[in-house]
Amino acid sequence: MEYKPIRTYVKRQGRLTKAQKIAIEVNGKSFLIEFKEELLQEEQLFLTEQPICFEIGFGMGGATHKIAQNNSDTNYIVTDVHQPGIGNLIKLSNADNLTNIKIIPHDALEVLRFMIKDSFLSKVNIFFPDPWHKKRHNKRRLVNNENLNLIISKLVDGGILHIATDWEPYALEIIEAIKTRDNLTLITNNFHERPDCRPETKYESRGMRLGHEVWDILATKG
Ligand SMILES: C[S@@+](CC[C@H](N)C(=O)[O-])C[C@H]1O[C@@H](n2cnc3c(N)ncnc32)[C@H](O)[C@@H]1O
């Protein structure tokens, strides 16, 4: 059967700043990995072999940059399709000479499907996936049973899935989906405290100004 993905994002037109454009052109080669329908070989990616965290949808990349900077003992493979964010994350990472981060500017679900080996990732971060509020758009939500199957297959046993959202119905749906599986165990589903491992993200700051609450949902494979 032909594989026809439902896109979980809309490619926003946002213009690149001069600095973002220069970052992509000059430093892109140090950070970008081209999407290909073939498995990534870890040894060609990073200087040091260490646990790998995969992020879906880093937006403008500010939180992602901080996480990679604060955790030099982990390698990061991160994805988004938003060009200004890609330029910004390259700019930030290059300024700090980070060697533990690679960016794949492509749909994360295709990256997982084609490029990531099974049982390869120690952690998957999904911070503020597009909520797709309207009922008729709910099918475009990133976190659903089918995509959870894909994500779980790429995690090592004991690996961690960390999702944050400020949309309560989505949070409850995710918690329910996790609870009904026997291959994922909830660690926490709180909305009171942001864990230290997750810096505040740009999308989150905007929501908080509007009075939104935030759910951090952490689960472990197994
Ligand atoms: C609401 S924004 C949140 C961005 C960032 N995590 C934050 O909290 O500021 C969601 C981001 O996920 C990206 N995204 C959605 N689906 C994606 C997918 N399948 N692959 C890669 N990125 C995706 C969008 O392009 C967008 O930048």
Descriptive keywords:
alpha/beta, Rossmann fold, 21% strand, binds S-adenosylmethionine, 7 strands
Short summary of the structure?
It is built from seven helices and seven strands, in the order H-E-H-E-H-E-H-E-H-E-H-E-H-E.
Q: Provide the helix percentage.
A: 25-40%
Order of helices and strands: HEHEHEHEHEHEHE
Rg, Å, rounded: 17 Å
Low-confidence stretches: none
Strand order of the largest sheet: 3-2-1-4-5-7-6
Kindly, what is the distance between the CA atoms of the first and last residues, rounded to a whole number of angstroms? 30 Å
CATH class: Alpha Beta
How many distinct helices? 7
**Bound ligands, named by name, code or SMILES:** S-adenosylmethionine
What is the correct CATH architecture? 3-Layer(aba) Sandwich
Q: How many domains?
A: 1
Query: What is the global morphology?
Result: globular
Strand content: 15-25%
